[in-house]
Amino acid sequence: LNSLCIGDQIKRVLQRPDEEAVVDHGGTSSVLNIHYEKEELEGHRTLFVGVRMPMGRQSHRHHRPHSSKHRRRADRTQAESVAQEDMNTESTATSHDTPSQRVQFILGTEEDEEHAAHDLFTELDEICVKDGKDAEWKETARWLKFEEDVEDGGERWSKPYVATLSLHSLFELRSCIINGTVLLDMKASCIEEIADLVLDHQEAAHELDDSVRMKVREALLKRHHHQSDKKRNNLLPMVKSLTDSGRRQSEPHHMDKAGELNCTALYMCPATSPQPPPTNTELKNGALDNSQMDLSKVDTHFMKKIPIGAEASNVLVGELDFLERSIIAFVRLSPAVLLTGLTEVPIPTRFLFILLGPDGKAQQYHEIGRSMATIMTDEIFHDVAYKAKDRTDLLAGIDEFLDQVTVLPPGEWDPSIRIEPPKSVPSQEKRKIPGVPNGTAVPVEEEQHGEHHGPELQRTGRLFGGLILDVKRKVPFYLSDFKDGLSLQCVASFLFLYCACMSPVITFGGLLGEATEGRISAIESLLGASMTGVAYSLFAGQPLTILGSTGPVLVFEKILFKFCKDYDLSYLSLRTCIGLWTAFLCLILVATDASSLVCYITRFTEEAFAALICLIFIYEALEKLFHLGEQYPINRHADLDKLTLAYCRCAEPDNPSNKTLELWNQRNITAPAVPWSNLTVSECLDLQGQFIGSACGHHGPYTPDVLFWSSILFFGTFFLSTFLKQFKTSRYFPTRVRSMISDFAVFLTIVLMVLIDYLIGVPSQKLQVPSNFKPTRDDRGWFINPIGRNPWWTVVAAPIPALLCTILIFMDQQITAVIINRKEHKLLKGCGYHLDLLMVGVMLAVCSIMGLPWFVAATVLSITHVNSLKLESESAAPGEQPRFLGIREQRLTGLVIFLLMGCSVFMTGALQFIPMPVLYGVFLYMGVSSLKGIQFFDRLKLFGMPAKHQPDFIYLRHVPLRKVHLFTLTQLTCLVLLWVIKTSPAAIVFPMMVLGLVFIRKLLDFCFAKRELSYLDDLMPENKKKKLDDDSKKAEVCDSYVEFNKAKRSYSKWYSMM
Q: 210-220 vs 191-204: helix axis angle to the nearest 10?
């Protein structure tokens, strides 16, 4: 009999027409008593097995079936008998399925087009009567991700906040789903049809009579008043922003990208108004047109925050005085329908929840409505609601939600306090993942310990194999590299970085000119930077890298020039030979895929190198400011009462040095004939006179206004740049204005500071740019002979210093490239370590032949370039932090930066107004901003934090604190050692020390466990292989277990349905 009954039920289900909504009239069904349909098992057999794993101790007992319940047919095989026994064992486990397992099963169903999940906008409307007027539905709250309420005054929306619900209202909501009407996949075209279908089922359940039915229907069709309607009717806040009002005037019937809505494409329904509804004939004949929706009234500002393809969920609650019992209905429309006037924004409605009850329980209904709306924003229940087949599925979703809910004691928390939305919402993926055989959840953190480097660093074993793969990888994106650069963000980036790159290039050229007696100076530095940067931006594998001058290169140039001067060799010729040999060695490194060794550079080395460069930027910026104090001294111990007696004049030096006498003899100057007291400061310094007087310092008269004004410009530039960069997250101005200010933060700061400096008029030090395009010295040209007057053996000996120079170039270039190509930056177009090194080597040869400085990847400038091109999501829900999408990968910013740098010689008139303290402030900003995201500094702060105040870093969960401190101290020691070497005369061996960090990191394998290093640092390649091998073995065991249960469960479930 049981088999016949089950068969009849399946037959009735299979014969149900597709057009008919799935109706569940409620009753006493329990979530735990789950019965599966035949189609359900056939379509989801595989995933069902994966989900329904035994969670606890697995029983291996085989229950012998009772003959009265399990008669075997004569033609059954022995295998079927064994399956029958297994079915009995499995039926015991099935009866104890948890809501989580049921939800995992539901989410594992195959998606069809009708039940594909969309983003949801949820609106809570309550019916109300105001001042004796006709009742209407009033919008009281809305959810896109977090809750927003209409404030008590009714004039504004609240700030988005995390919804806090009472546990009682959640249980009442569950009761509503159990006892109310559930209509799934209803096909309706307008609110009238929905109301009729809902009331038909209520009437069929003998819960309504005809008179009450008409009143309820009339209430459901009342007009909906939205909060945005009040804004549009008010003249004062009509102009919310210039961009929005301009868009409304120019495009009144076309929505922007966020909504993708057009009048001609809308599927319209009659407006929900108190007017008599049209007849069915009118609906079928299409008498109603799209004119009933005025899209000019749509709140486009809020519409931009709604993701493309989003659907609506409407919650309608309220009290009606003529009702004696509640009317409850949960409706899922299929397909979603645009219901005119029902929702604040014109998007199709997918779900409706209706709760109308007797008087006196308005607050209770409100809380149940909030619970329904909040649970619809839950990522898991949201998916369950789309895929649910009946009431039990919805109840399983609610029960799973209740399993995850945290209850706060009433005496320890004030529910009226609104919780600010978190900066980052935790992932809910673990709620979707079934258990593994040992009863634990599948680990979700394994992904972060995956491969540190991609296929770009795999050795090919072929000559130039890596270079060929780099070219193949970059060619498909070459055209898009230019198209993607056509953005306002890129304009802000190159304007900022042009100013940031100009100063160090000119400064480096000036220092090099002093070290080489003018053989290579500022004009050569500008030309070399422009040529190298343009070529690199056009053809490099990673154009986001910015090339610049480095300290070790300057030290190498100084040592080489001193060597040539001591041995009477031509500096430029020997330098050309060394440069050509270095380029040749770089070519060998490219041919042999030597860049694959970069995979041994882990976070330990990256962060030590990056932190050092950032600290050097900060140190040099402050050092240059203090150096201004020597040029423009202040009187620290002045007697203010004697200021009227203070003076400063030039005088003949009492004891002139030999250098001074030699200068006078060269110019045919006799000291007594010089009118010393009438000389200006610059003339006195030129003739090496001395300053005497109470208002004189060592280098001239006291000029306190210049130094203090320079300090104001320096710190003003730093703080204003920081403030404007963070302006994107402020509360002022529309989003687009804030974003534009943030993108142009540094450039706006420079322009503002230049204007202020010009208006104040204090003679601060200005940027000096060469005004003539010719070599600094007349005795050299633009092309250098590699031998010149040097002996032939210099060509043979040049490879020795070239080897050291190659290591210097390789380490500086590739470590910076590794930092730029981090997976945290979410780069999509790939990178090209081999192609980058090839371009640096080729341009190094060109610069050597032309007698120009050598340029290599500049760490801080490159990091700043990447940070200025970050992309964030535009359609962020209110209260939600914009999501980081990646970097705008393109070639135009670098190309324009270095093209403008080459043209700077012709822009001297404008550039000479830029104060140097402003550029020093930009250096300080770049150094400080580049420190963000370096884990080393986060770990450094832990030394001064009690454990209870430490942030919730992932490595603190899995690594003992003493091990974290040991790792940090080791890194700090290496950083100090690098600093000492970098700032000492031995700076030329700095690249060798950076290479030594790789070996120091290797030694840490003996002090830390692999698991600890996987959280603190990236695993070395050998360890990765072992780890992947271990994971694959574990996966094989899990797969075999799952396959066994798959076959056993699917056959048992099929057998139970027979």
A: 150
